[in-house]
Design goal:
alpha/beta, four-stranded antiparallel beta sheet, 15% strand, globular
């Protein structure tokens, strides 16, 4: 580690304390740390990677520290890491020697740094080797970019990125998808990204938008902000009116700006600040997209503190919100595409079961998503729904289902 260990001890103690007391995103907590101590750019880059790995394996570190007599506080955990020379790989090696007598689910949760309850809930839903591959994949940072081919070519986009120090790998099957070689490399400063010729969007999110190209008519994006899926939909040009809805006034105000920058002015776009659990439209929409608020357990590598804040109570809460969104949307939508960035069946298979039980004349339509797999085993409708598994798609984890009326 190139960062002075004494500085790292101070910085990581403050950083972890901020995360565990304020419950804010990884990015916000780290920016707060950098500003507070006026940390230089080169040092901040090294600290960022260290902080990322510590948070990803927080539960692993916590367990081994406790075995060695340290208390579960940010200062004590940081002191333990200091004694381990902030070598997280060494922590994992020593931890592996301590797990012999534990159950498979506990061993998996500790080796991959996940709350034990979520691994227990997933146990049996996938073969053990697949479960480990999924959890391991979500621990590895990735940054995907999508070329806006309405504004530029893939070749020009790649040239622009690489001229500004962002090396990329082209996706073997999807021409407009690019992955940065260094997932920690900042990209916001690159001109083609500023001009919305290249859009930051995860591969899984992009793949789901390809489903939207199959439909025409009026379209409702029920949980729209920040608007990237809406942008992809508008770029296909297959829809009449597009209605973008979000419950957050602040987040909703961003959507028109994102759309205009990436697509241009769209006269048929209607923006609504409202709650899609209760809103009813006079239009009968051809398709409603519900990119549902969720626990974000499928997006851990984008914001690793999700692991620290993830609870079964939160997952239940999000599950109920998702159910309300779908049931209300079926009142005016001919089809409802339900998407949740979660690896937990409470946000997916379980919600789908409840929709079919509660909604009159609603059924699940079989769908096929590129790189998609059928839902978790143990559900009668698993073959009708899809999951994008992180280790299969090399992206975030999503559940996808299509409901139809009639």
């Amino acid at each position: 580690m190139s960062v002075d260990p004494h500085k790292a001890r101070l910085y990581m103690s403050v950083f972890l304390s901020t995360l565990t007391t304020r419950k804010i995103s990884f990015e916000k907590a780290f920016r707060t740390l950098v500003r507070k101590y006026n940390i230089k750019t080169w040092e901040a880059d090294q600290l960022y990677k260290l902080a990322y790995k510590i948070v990803i394996y927080y539960y692993s570190i916590e367990f081994l520290a406790r075995l060695k007599g340290y208390k579960n506080t940010p200062s004590h955990l940081t002191e333990f890491l200091y004694q381990m020379k902030f070598d997280v790989n060494r922590v994992l090696e020593e931890l592996g020697e301590e797990l012999g007598g534990l159950s498979p689910s506990t061993r998996i949760s500790l080796m991959h740094g996940y709350p034990p309850w979520i691994v227990r809930d997933l146990y049996g839903k996938l073969p053990l080797d697949e479960l480990e591959k999924m959890l391991s994949s979500l621990n590895v940072r990735k940054r995907w970019l999508v070329v806006n081919t309405a504004k530029t070519s893939v070749e020009k986009a790649v040239e622009c990125l690489e001229n500004h120090g962002v090396e990329v790998i082209r996706h073997p099957d999807i021409e407009e998808l690019l992955m940065t070689r260094d997932p920690f490399k900042k990209v916001a400063h690159v001109p083609c990204i500023k001009r919305a010729e290249v859009l930051p969007q995860d591969i899984s999110s992009y793949i789901i938008t390809k489903l939207l190209e199959e439909f025409t008519g009026d379209f409702v994006d029920a949980c729209s902000a920040p608007g990237l899926k809406l942008v992809r939909t508008l770029l296909t040009g297959n829809y009449g009116r597009a209605i973008a809805v979000d419950i957050s006034e602040k987040r909703m105000s961003i959507v028109p700006k994102v759309v205009e920058k990436a697509v241009g002015r769209v006269p048929t776009l209607i923006v609504v600040n409202g709650d899609s659990r209760t809103l009813i439209f006079n239009v009968k929409s051809s398709l409603v997209l519900i990119d549902a608020p969720c626990s974000n357990s499928g997006a851990i590598y984008a914001n690793p503190v999700v692991k620290l804040y993830l609870t079964r109570k939160l997952t239940w809460k999000m599950s109920k919100i998702q159910l309300s969104l779908i049931l209300n949307s079926l009142k005016y939508g001919e089809r409802v595409l339900y998407v949740a960035c979660s690896i937990h069946p409470l946000e997916g298979e379980e919600v789908s079961l409840k929709v079919i039980g509660k909604a009159k004349n609603a059924r699940l339509a079989k769908i096929s998503v590129k790189y998609g797999s059928q839902g978790y085993s143990g559900y009668e409708h698993s073959k009708l729904v899809q999951r994008l598994y992180p280790h299969v798609v090399n992206g975030q984890g999503f559940f996808v289902a299509m409901f139809e009326r009639g």
